[in-house]
């Protein structure tokens, strides 16, 4: 039996992807966070990040599977809300549709801000070796590996046959239309790719934001260390340079202005990623504002099983992800505020010199301006509403608990009736 042209095309595409995957991993798994991030973006179908070394075969395979999973999920959701509105399965289907919608929004955000993301990643990745940068790369590499591990573990759990899995993930029977055998094949494809397709798309945005924010925070940390080195040397240098204070002030001014220039570069790169940070956290926060309490309710009412563990992990993982985003932003802002402390100490240690009063006064004025700019930085908010801070996670937990108690109360009333 001859294969259809589209079947041949799919087989050739899979073979090309397999051969190039084998070539890519020929020297072992990626040992650099930026290379691993490219690998994750490729698996997630974000081809705009890796088009310079991979073909678009995998991209179209991923898009077809993502579209298939999304359409099946929507059909299942509509069917459940028509047949059994208010049931656990209908709530779960609504949450799945919400999760897939967020995955698509994440992909759109990465595509829309692709030039800005590439600019920031190039800035961070091309810096010379430093102990802080090496620690940052090692940490981000570990985080991305954990993300990939979670995705593939979830997919393995999804393949375990169980009554709960069939209950949560089966779609309306189509055997009368397409036959039982084809229906079984479609269900297997759905469950065998659901976690990988959705999970990779889900984590790709978080991994990209993590790499950019942590990378810029490391650059700020290194700059603060350079500033502190100047502070440690300024008093000693000022006393030693009694005979040539003008040369000392010129060197000090040059070092300080170099700090100003580098800080301005980092500030400009931070402004580039603000739109992605704000939009990404907005989608994350309000999706899990609706989802966390509902996910926990589905697990509590539906019973414990391998499939329900994935559902529970989704709810808890959402809270952890929100906390991770806010902690990164808070840490970056705290590091930026350290420049104010350095400015204060430098102003206190400059002293007074009647022979070079104008030079010292000019340097003091510039330090005051720099101090004001670093201490009055605008907080990062998601679409101008909720500040990206740990306090927003506390509000999310409170609202999720309120949602959970509301669903439990409504469920008890329905059981009584």
Automatic annotation (TrEMBL):
TM region positions: 58-75, 81-105, 140-162, 182-203, 279-300, 306-326
Source species, domain of life: Eukaryota
UniProt keyword annotation of Magnesium present: no
Keywords: Membrane, Transmembrane, Transmembrane helix
Keyword tRNA processing annotated: no
Protein name in the entry: Odorant receptor
